[in-house]
Amino acid sequence: MVADYYELLGVAPTASTGEIRKAYLRLAREKHPDRFSEGPEKDAAGVVFQDLTTAFNTLCNERSRREYDETRGRPRPTTPEEIARDAFERSSTLLGRGAFDEAVTLLRTAVHHAPETAEYHAALGRALSRDPAAAREAIQELDRAAKLAPRDAAVLADLAILLHRQGLSLRAQRSLEAAKRLGPGNPRVTAAVTEIGGPRS
Fold first, then answer.
1. What is the DSSP string of 54-92?
2. Which are the contacts of 17, defined by CB distance < 8 A and separation ≥ 6?
3. 94 with 103: CB under 8 angstroms?
4. In the chain, domain spans
5. Is the dihedral of CA 142, 145, 149, 152 positive or negative?
6. What's the pLDDT tens digit per position in 61-79?
7. Which H or E run includes 197?
8. Cβ–Cβ < 8 Å for 133, 104
């Protein structure tokens, strides 16, 4: 279960942004996965570190902190699946209002807690694709989504566009051909064909 964000960071609900930042930096140093050797300890540290980062990003943004404070009294998700779904759903709202970094953090949380869910990998890949510096990771996430859901034409089409933009033409064409076979009328497939070129059928 993800603890209350204030409890997780060891600060009071009245803590200033500076106090929250200081607490996060201290905990991030202590709990960073790189401090542990491979195995269960490192995996556990990864979960804690991701949760700490989500808590920090939420509480250091005035708007998201206000929203979090309003929902603190409600029942919180407890299972990994619930935590992942909650993070995924909140990320959509954040993306809609342009809070890119916060949305990506939540999507990373979703992927971390439900690594076999293609929808979360696809959403993270699409979000990351907005940042040219994150193109490589975006491709990895969309590729993972395509492996988990090999019949999802929209994911294959989005992957094709991203590969094409990175100059990986052969892989882009392969992904596009698969997308066209699976969903010739899908709007994302149509968009990919328009951008990459080639026959629409």
1. HHHHHHTSHHHHHHHHHHTTSPPP-SHHHHHHHHHHHHH
2. 59, 60
3. yes
4. 150-201
5. negative
6. 888 898 888 877 777 777 8
7. none
8. no
